[in-house]
Amino acid sequence: MSVYAQWMRAWVNGELLDDPNTPAIAVTDHGFTVGDGVFEAIKVLDGEPFALTRHLDRLAVSAHGLGLPAFDLDEVRRGVAAVLEGQDLPLGRVRITYTGGEAPLGSGRGDNPPTLVVVAGVLAPRKESTAVVTVPWPRNERGVLAGLKTTSYAENVVALAYAAERGSSEAIFANLAGNLCEGTGSNIFYVIDGELRTPTLASGCLAGISRALLLEWYGARELDEPVGVLDEASEIFLVSTTRDVQPVRVCDGRALEAPGPITREAMQVWADRERASFDP
Fold first, then answer.
1. Bridge partners, 102 (sequence order)
2. Per-residue model confidence (pLDDT) at position 3
């Protein structure tokens, strides 16, 4: 069994697989051949999916933006329940992937039904802090996929490899306007003159679930400014499903207090509120 599938459970198009390594997706699936799909990654705490409703709402927005047919919400929830039932997951992750289904070998879609996959597995605890690096390639805030969570992640793979070569776990993008945008799989917050800030959604960043919750629970000023503002920031942190609120100790080789006082407050608020409701 693959090391990646060792602790996984998979549900594909309504069927729970006995072995997650079992071949289940056609080689002509449009999600496989051209990345024609959308997905969500959902944190699991003590066997319960966190903020599932918000994630499913965003999945629907992404599917609509990509032109995929609407999915059956109840069916997706059944898939999530199936992969979590009987699992011992104090900390885990559910991934929902929805693709264009089987299609000709090209960009055009076929007439077959979409593919729906739900997978659950163990999530490794996040590191106490991290290092980030800005990358030389911009996000396209005017592109057709801007703000959508699609499976077309190749530029993120390249950016993360660039970051890893420089001792960092996350790559930070500017957009075409030269303004700070986002990480490959995270939203970014930073402190200037004691004020917590984060890019607006108009920057082209993903409308992160963790981003939205932190704005509701703690607050921050949303504005767009040049990526070079990070050189002036006294604190920086990332937020995402797998990172929660994660302090940045190094940005482009510059050491930062991690966590600083505002980051520490945001972390505490997150920890307190996260356990108050599994579906905020």
1. 29
2. 44
